[in-house]
Write a structure and sequence with these properties.
- It is a single chain.
- The protein folds into two domains: 4-78, Winged helix-like DNA-binding domain superfamily/Winged helix DNA-binding domain (Arc Repressor Mutant, subunit A); 92-121, no CATH class.
- It contains eight helices and three strands.
- The protein has helices at 4-7, 10-18, 22-31, 38-45, 49-61, 83-91, 93-97, 101-121, and strands at 36-37, 65-70, 73-78.
- α4 (38-45) crosses α5.
- The chain is globular, with a radius of gyration of 17 Å.
């Protein structure tokens, strides 16, 4: 049986599981720019409507995205505004590993400040 420390991380683990597919990463990255409807995701990914709907359901169950029906369309928005930043950080991980430990620390501090600035710039709803 898991201890309390690992039990408390279960919901966070669900977020990371939900991000574990390239299409869902694409969806999250694009939702950082604006709200989008399913038709936008179908066009952008080239996947079938049913596949995109399944990916959106995974993200919705993990509380990564929220949806709102407007007329005949359902629009999605990102719940965690820091996830696209995390994706960007992970994409440059190989470049970071080639840096010295001191350079990595400087970069980490810059990235941290960048995230803080980004989160401060977001409107409070």
């Amino acid at each position: 049986m898991a201890n309390d420390a690992t039990k408390n991380l279960a919901s966070l683990a669900e977020v990371f599981k939900a991000l574990g597919h390239p299409t869902r990463l694409w969806i999250v990255r694009n939702l950082a720019k604006k709200e989008m409807c399913v038709c936008d995701f179908v066009e952008g990914t080239g996947e079938e409507f049913s596949a995109v709907s399944q990916h959106l359901n995974v993200l919705k169950k993990a509380h990564v995205v929220e949806s709102e029906k407007r007329g005949k369309h359902v629009f999605y928005k990102l719940v965690y505004n820091c996830i696209p930043w995390l994706i960007d950080c992970m994409e440059v991980r190989n470049e970071v590993l080639s840096l010295s430990r001191e350079e990595q620390l400087v970069l980490a501090k810059q990235q941290r400040q960048s995230l803080i600035d980004h989160l401060k710039s977001l409107p409070l709803e």
